[in-house]
Structures are given as structure tokens and as C-alpha cells.
Fold each of these.
Amino acid sequence: MKTEWIAVDWGTTALRAWAMVGGAVVDLRHSDRGMGRLQPSEFEAALLDLVSDWLGAEATPVVACGMVGSRQGWVEAPYSRVPCKPLTTTVTAPTTDPRLRVDVISGLAQDTPPDVMRGEETQIAGFLALNPSFDGILCLPGTHTKWVHMSAGEVVSFRTVMSGEVFAAISTQTVLRHSLDTQEMDREAFDAALSETMTRPETFARDLFGLRAADLLTQAPPQVARARLSGGLIGLELAATKPYWLGQPVAIIGAPALSALYERSLRAQGVICEQADADEVTRAGLHAAYLRIQGIAS
Amino acid sequence: MKTEWIAVDWGTTALRAWAMVGGAVVDLRHSDRGMGRLQPSEFEAALLDLVSDWLGAEATPVVACGMVGSRQGWVEAPYSRVPCKPLTTTVTAPTTDPRLRVDVISGLAQDTPPDVMRGEETQIAGFLALNPSFDGILCLPGTHTKWVHMSAGEVVSFRTVMSGEVFAAISTQTVLRHSLDTQEMDREAFDAALSETMTRPETFARDLFGLRAADLLTQAPPQVARARLSGGLIGLELAATKPYWLGQPVAIIGAPALSALYERSLRAQGVICEQADADEVTRAGLHAAYLRIQGIAS
């Protein structure tokens, strides 16, 4: 089937593209040529390498979100200030190949406290397209987890907590790496650490070295140490973001395994939450942007 | 002057040796051949490379502390369990050169909560040798800061907080590295972050990404971001170690710049504290161990 338009999610470490007809996927590709590995002049070639056989003689519309729109990206798509709708402006990227017309979606920024997002605004728009009446909190867990307060179709405020990146730095770059050599997590240890840091957040930093010492002294299992580090960080995050989730419905949008940890943690606080499919909402957000660019929807 | 004995502080990343006559230094050397870069069979040669011209025909006593006594070191000097005096046992390392006799000082361990130290026990012993009547808290800031409760010449309990290593991991391995490119720290920003995390520890993790966002949105100066990260981590540490320092005299033993940050932070809580010279207490501890090994003191 002929590609009508191309949806692109172009982050720091990865590039994903979907060949689309309306809101339906007809093909998909991905590559590891993320923004972090490309100079501004290299984006067009990187995209063509991945999708050129989807293109016809006429310009195919491409709609892209993510770090591709940052200052170090293909073209800078300036941040829009919240409160605002998640989809605001797009910027057309410079291209030389007449078969391409590429529009990049702006990220969102907040002045107080200072915060930014790029890519998540598109997922938020997609979630709203699929759930138009949703009011409440969106939680987008990842390297930089976003907590987003939605009301009447607008992003009211948001907060980024970098628990994922801190987990990666501590678990690979400190002495704890010797005691975390597993991908498994002990559920009870996760729950206990979560509960402890939610009650006494200051214990998080104090108890870190104990994970190493317990390994040295009693060969404590790595799946316990890994679960305690994860549970401790998520507990610290939930303690700090309580004004977001307390008494609110929460929808979680992220990779399934990490989303499940957040769901488990929020449910332990009595929060009503659900998971949404991250790929589906990303495509729905890019589709909503495509319809706006084509003048089909507002 | 002829070397009577050799004092050695052999950690993970560095080897330092002093040629001694009694308690007086007659020469000193250092090298970057720490435990982390050596196989067990390579320690003797590394030491000889550094100090062979200090040696006479007879065996010169060498007293060593630090990671040289770990399982991956020259010889394992098993941990002694607290409560106990800081100097407990020594283990003689295997040597082939008749000009050397090397004794390695045991570290200390604690079962509940699990914790270990290697090297700091020697500094503690040296501090006690210089301040025999001290009862109170020793704070040894560093990669792994130790908080030590001393009473009647014994280590009653201790706690390791790895703020230094977490600072290094976050400031070099996460997105914040782009916003911390300075060695300067803004004092007001340090004090404010310290106070905030002492009052509301959970804000530490939540506010991290704001350091990056403030840089992106308002070009906030890196010396403010660096100070906030440092103050936040030390605030989290002080909040968690309050049972150690509250209402107690504290002596700080560490590198001068880091010790000054801890002193500033503790004084802001009304704690009476003083700094001790880390090199001097290390040598005094090694000297106390030397006297015991020679049967000159108990």
C-alpha cells in the first residue's frame, strides 16, 4: 500500500519510523542513529537511508517528534510555555530531497520550576486523542520520568524526575555495580525499600552502601540489592511527587516492565492507575499533528 | 637518616609511603599503582619500585593500611567486628625479598546494619593517639564518607554514606554533566540546597533535572548547579545521620576542601566541630600499629 505520510519518533539514542495511511501502520523501521550521534547536516541522509523506498515522486509528509527538534537536532523547534495544549507549533526542517517535507513538533517548557520536555508532548497529545475526556495525571516513566497534570485538554504543569538515569549511573558507575549483577528483582525487597523511602526519604542515600556491605559480609543476593536500589529511587520520586498523584487518577505511558514497577508502586499508595501503550499513543500523537499540518483538524 | 620503618597507605587508586624514624617522617613517595590496578602477585614489586632505596640489608618493617588488605589485595586481613578498638589484628603479607617484612592492618565490619571500612580504622587510631580522651563522632568525608561513634577508645558503631561517589556518578555520567562544567561552587546556592534537603529530603531527587532545565531555559550558571548538587547530597546525608551528630562533638578527618564543606554544613546545624589533618592522623595510626607489632605498646 502506498505510504500517505511518515511518523517519526527521533530521540537521543534511536530513530523509529512508521509508514502510515491515515492512522494505520503499513510498515515500520528503526535504527540506532539517534540525535546524539548525528550532526545537523546528517539527519536528512539518516532518514533517507531508513525510509527512501517508502517515498513516491511527490513530497511525502513526515512528522517528527523528540530530540530531533532540539538545538543540537535537525532544526530547533522552540519550546512552548505551559499551560497550553500539548501540540502547539511545528517547524519545517531544511531538506534538499524533493521527496521529503519534514515537520518537527515543538517541546514544552515551564518557567517555574524550570522544566522541559521533548517527545512526551506528542505522547500526551496521542493519549488525549484516544481519551478525550481525561483529566488527571499522566506519568511517563523512563530515563527522565515526566509527571504531567492535565486539565481540559491542556498541560497545566509538569515535573521531570531523573530516577532512571540516576539508577543507571549508580548501578553501573559506582562500587555497587559489583553487587547488582542481575536483571532480576526481588519483589518483597522492592516493596520494602519503596515503603521505607516514602516514609523516611533521607534513608535512601544512607542505605546505599549497605547494599555493597551486605554482599561482602553475607553474600546478600544481587536481585535483592537491585530491587532495593530501584524501590528506593521510585520511593524517593513518589514522596516528592505526591502533590501530583495523591487523590488523582493516573495513566502510565512507558515501556511495559518499567511501567509495571510504577503501577505497582502507585497502587501500594491506593492510587487508581492504568497503563497505556506507549507506541500507540506516540503514533496517535504524530497522527494528530499530521492532521493539523494538513489542515484537516485544529 | 636511616629508615627505621615504612608507613604505607595503599588504597584503591593510590599508594603512598613514608620513610619513618620513630614517629618522624624522613621521606615520602607516592604512586598511582593502587590496589585496583594490581594483581595480588604484583604488590611486592610495586612497593619495591617505590621504596627500595630506603631499605637496608636487614628486613625493614612495613606497616600498611587500606584496600591492600582486601580480598583482591596483597593479603586478606579479615575484618574485626565492632564494637572494638580501631586497631585489632594485622596479617603478614607474603614476600620474597628478605629486605621486607610487611604487616597489613585489618579493617572493621558491622553486622547490623551491614557496613565495612578499610583504612579509616587506622586514621581513627591515629586520631585517638593524638586525642586520647576524645569521645564523640568522627566524620571522615570522601568517596565513601564514614560516620563513627567513638566511646572510651572504641568504635561503637559506624555508617558509610557514599555521597562522594554518587556526586561523581551524577555529575559525570548523566545529562547534568553539561550543566556542571566548573570546579567553583556558589556558597549561597550550596547553603540553600543543604537546608532544603535537610528539611524535605525527598526534594533532592525531584529537583535534579531542574538544574539542567534552568541551564537550558535561563543559562543558570554552572557554579550554582554544582553547588546545589553538592549541597543537596550533603543535606540528604546529614538528614540521615542526625542520630550520629546531633548534640555531639564532631571531628572531621579528610581532604581540606571537602572537610570544609562538611564543617560548614555541620556548623549550620549548630554542631561544634573541628578538622584534623588527614595525613597526620594516618601516619599516627600506622605508627601506633608499628609500636604494637614491635611489642613496644599494647
Note: The first helix of chain B runs from residue 43 to 51.
Amino acid sequence: MSRWNELVATTEDRQREKREIVIRMAGAAFGRNGFYSTTLEDVAKSIGLTKAAIYYYFKNKNEILFECHKLAIQIAQKALEDAESEGRNGFEKLTLTVRNYIVGMTSELNFSILVDVSALKPEERSYVVSFRDKFEARMRSFVEEGIADGSIAPCEPKFAIFAIMGAVSWVPSWYSPAGELTGEQVADVLIGFLSNGLSPRT
Amino acid sequence: MSRWNELVATTEDRQREKREIVIRMAGAAFGRNGFYSTTLEDVAKSIGLTKAAIYYYFKNKNEILFECHKLAIQIAQKALEDAESEGRNGFEKLTLTVRNYIVGMTSELNFSILVDVSALKPEERSYVVSFRDKFEARMRSFVEEGIADGSIAPCEPKFAIFAIMGAVSWVPSWYSPAGELTGEQVADVLIGFLSNGLSPRT
């Protein structure tokens, strides 16, 4: 009986693992080629599975897309929480969030930022959009905290977050798992620009 | 005869004008709702035309998408050229390009950045992608010039451009023609962040 349970647990673990691999590989492909241009056939091929095997785990391509969004939300949520407990001022909380998020996305999801929510079902879309709003609000509060504690220059927090989210959303175009930079290094470079800008330090 | 020519010219002008309006309104809708989720019916309604009237000017939705990309390329090309002749150093050329591009896109195309090229035909896609490469190369050369003339802090030009293009690509999410900021003001705020970053000036 315990052997049976063990076997069942192992099978469940392996199935969860396989599901996760499909989500990650599909997410990377959606990010690279666009959701509509990526077929499940492409995704299956990139993992060495058959299309039928993928249908064992997922109803359709849209279900996988929503799972990708849910994984990205988990990564973002953890990025926020860790930054909040580790950062000693507003600037550190803000930049740690950016760093944790980039490192998480590059390692977990091959960094596909899923900007386009138009392919999601209405209830899925509002789930994703409402998380984004909360995420951005939390980021804004870090900027406000930083302005108050002197670690961030006075600015309009809303616009600071727009500029930062934009720079982060562009990371997929310069990060490649096979490329010259690790996720950590990409995060460092980006945070450097966000912190100091282009102007020469005098 | 001259009256006839006049009439023909006027008709041609008006037809060109109408075509341009369709391109702009469709571009804004594609940017807002995604290309695949936008129907020509939606676009027609937003202009007060019938769908049939749109088919008089364009073969299909894909033709309009490519026209949007071509308009964006014209705006970007002009942004570069004007910046090159007006900027007195690398920093000015770089930030003027960003400013001209944002002002052009907000006024001409309601600022839809068309990141997704997957809906374009292969030859259209390579046209767009090869222009993007040239645009980014020119921007990089402005950064190199700025580092050499002391107007930009030493950095890796490639990564600076990635961060800048990212921030620019996010503008549609904070610019609305009916919103609180003009295109000029959006450009000012963004250039401020790109120049000085978040760190307090000491």
C-alpha cells in the first residue's frame, strides 16, 4: 500500500512536471513568435512530444496561455513579497522587485512577457488585468516610499512605473537563454540605467 | 479640362485622406485591442464608415496592418533625420529622436506601437524588421557619439538602446489622446527618466 502510494505520488509529480514543461516551452514560443502564430504542433516538437500528448494535459492552446499568465503572476507576486521583506528603503524595494521579477521570468518562463491579453476569456482577462493593476500600485507605493525616505528623486510615481515596466517588458528582445548575458546580468544592467540614467555623473 | 483636372485632383486628395484616416484609426485599434481581436467592422464603426467602404480602399485587414507599419517607419525615419540635423551632441541626437518619435506617433498614429510582426507576410516582415535594425543601429551610434563627446555616461550602447526602446514601447499604455498629458509632455517625462534615472541628484 505504501509502495502504491509512493508510485502514485511519483506519477503525479511527473505529470505535474510535464505539465509545467509544456507551460514554459509554450510561453517561450508565444513570447517569441506571437500566440496566434504558434501552433501546438510547434510547441510539441520543441519538447519532443506529440501533439496528442499535449492534449492529454491541456484542453487547448488558450488553456496553456492562461497557465502562462498564472505562472507569470506567481513570479511577480513572489518578486514583490521578497523585495518588500528584504529592501531597506523605497529604492531597494523597487529595484529588488525588478531584479527578482527578471531573474524569475528568465529562469521559469524563458521570459516571455505576455502583454497581449486579447486571446484570454473575459474572466481570465480580468483576473490578469486586476493583478497587473495591483502589481503596479505596489510598485508605485515603493516609489512614494523612496521619495519620502530620500532614496528616490522627487518624481511622479505613476510615470516612473510606466517607464520601468516598459524597460522590463523589452527584456525578451535582449535576453536569450543561449545569449551572452544571464538573467541576473540583464537585471543589473537594466537597474543601472533606471537608477542613474544616461547623464554623465559629475 | 483644367476644371476636370482640379476635380480629379480633389477627388484623389480626398481618397488619399480617407485612406489615411482608416490607417490611423485601425492602427490605434490594433494597438489598443490587438490585431487579431480587432475586426474591420470595429474600425469602420469608429470612423462612421461601412465595412464595404473600407474594402473600397483596402484588400483586407493585413494590408491595413502593413500600411500602419509603413507609416510608423516614416515617422521613425523623420525622427532620426531631424534629430541628426538639430542635435549638437550624441545625447541631444538620441533624446531628440525619442522625442520626435513619440510626438509623431501620438499625433499621426494615435500611438500604437506594433511590436508583433507575426501577422505580416514574410516579405513585409523582413522589410519592417530590417528597418528596425537600422533604426536601432543609428540610435546606438548616437550613444557611442555621446560617450565620446562626454554627453552620455560610459555604458554598453546596445543595452542602453534596449532599455530606451522598451520604455518607448510602453508609452501606449500611458498615453491616451483624451488623457491628461500631451505627446510632448509624455516625451518630456520619459526623457527625464532616461537622462537622470531615479537616484537623487546630490
Note: Residues 60-196 of chain B form a domain with the Tetracycline Repressor; domain 2 fold (CATH 1.10.357.10).
